[in-house]
Design a protein that fits this description.
This is DUF1800 family protein. It comes from Xylophilus rhododendri. Pfam families: DUF1800 (PF08811). With 644 residues, the protein is mainly alpha-helical. The chain has 25 helices and 13 strands. A three-stranded antiparallel sheet has the order 10-12-11. Strands 1-2 form a two-stranded antiparallel ribbon. A two-stranded antiparallel ribbon has the order 3-6. A hairpin with a 2-residue loop joins strand 1 and strand 2. The longest helix is centred in the N-terminal third of the chain and has 20 residues. The radius of gyration is 26 Å and the shape is globular.
Length: 644
Amino acid sequence: MTYTETSSSPTPTAALDAKAPAPVTPDSTQGKSTRTWLAASVAAATATLEACGGGGEESAAAASSFSTTPAISAQASISAAGKAAIASNTLAGGSAGPLALPHTWEVPANDAEAARFLLQAQFSASDAEIAAVKDMGYAGWLAAQFNVPASTTAWDWLEQRGYGVLDSNNFHFTPYQTDFAVWYQLIKSPDGVRKRVALALSEIFSVSTNGVDYFWLSHIMASWWDTLSAGALGNFRTLLENVTLHPAMGMYLNSRGSQKESTAGRQPDENFARELMQLMTIGLVKLNANGTPVVSGGVPVETYTQNDVINLARVFTGYNFDTTGNVPTPFNGLQVPSKDFTRRPMSLSASLHSTLEVNFLGTKIPAGTSGEAARKIALDTLFNHPNVGPFIARQLIQRLVNSNPSDAFVARVASTFNNNGKGVRGDIAATVACLLLDSESRGPSGTTSTAYGKLREPMIRMVQWARSFGLNSACGSWKIFDQSLSTQLGQSPLRSPSIFNFFRPGYTPPGTSIAAAGKVAPEFQIVNESTVSAYINYMMNVVRNGFYINAPDLPQITSNAKNGFDIAATYAQELPLAADAAALVARLNLVLAAGQLSKATVTLIVNALNATPVTAASNDAVKLNRIAAGVLMVMSSSEYLVQK
């Protein structure tokens, strides 16, 4: 995907006019702080990248130890382990059976192809993971990952770390512990594919910590994340049920506490009913099987009317927290409930539920139908709507692979959603497998086409960095806070500004070649002058130093807690390469950019690093300075920022 500027408004671009920067020399950085040295190196590299249009289209294979040219024939065979994983894989609890291989490239021809696949399927591409994909094949590795047990829940993690106690720390009110738990899971959990899909789902079912306010908020949101994670490789109908009844959704979209109509004029709250249709299942307009709008008289046909919303809202009345057996604890003048309700589905009070007839989307729910039965009919109606397959397929493709999938690609993925090959509808794991294994994802054109790719989201960049370079917490604090401020990363999981996520699937940056081509670039909705500079400045500090944590940490570990950069990357595999700038950049190119940096970009970064001498005899601090500078320059380059 190529971005150019066609208006006077500053727009992220890979081809800007810029003057060549002054070279960074040892003299120009001698005696300066690490931050200054990093800034000088990055400024030199970034300015030159802009001046030369990101380094052009030439392959960087010559600067690396691996080839970036896909081999379409004569590939290696899938190993016995890969074949066994494919044959025994049981997606969605046994519904899908063996994975199909709807593409030509069963085994990656080189490390770069394996890394590219890994960075689409999860967050990182370690040496071991690259070797496993090459050995087992794409489908074999993916099948094995689908069978990795889910990691410890975020809710249990909070409890294990003492965040469930009622004391002067006020954990029963503060939201930050959710940030700690989710960042930790994204960075350290072994089930990376599950967590990557869960993060994608969190941007479709976009409940935000910022819009939920109640006792034990962090536990409520941790439970919400656990619901998405548990359902990430399951069935969409089950997920739909679970998100509908979750306390977080109930608070965020007002279905909790919504009551039947009254003689005084009270009406059921319509918020959840509307967004359930618009954002989570069928969208605003009717879709063909390939995701294109159904048009009548030159106008897209709407999927639902306001009358559908009014009727559907009746179904979701009478729900509230399940406080069965709850014994509140007096604390600071408040009656604080126990935490059990935070991970229980909301319960139904029949006396508050509307029993009027419901007519929506051509489905009739007779008057007097019980609340549970009405909910089942309503969710079944939405789940079986023909829009759901292409609507969800396109968004999953956008989140994992490509902002602008072809109509045929959407149709293939939607077809798998509609029927996983064994007559099961809504198999999310099979749907994800289809989109990752499809020829449009694995074929060579994706790495060269200017219309292919997606902007990496800031939070995904940070998780990739953390997983790639061994981020660890020396004291076990793992206190990574909300990073959504304009002076920081600009994005955090479960911190979207509204139910409409951080960005819309159909967003197009105005005044750009993307708009002129009729394409979309959703992630660019959160890109502006402030967020671009904030990202680089923030990562400049984090990449080298890590996260600063104030002591004391938690009661259990106060003896070894201290102020300092407790959470930091180890760069264990990069330290031996630090004296050889070319070897270092080749590795960074592989694990961060899947070998997609051009030769010109690689040369530019190598030259910038060589401006400050580092030898095998240099101490680790000097070596880490070089590694951090290299990482930052790669992660600031357009060829990295756009995932292909």
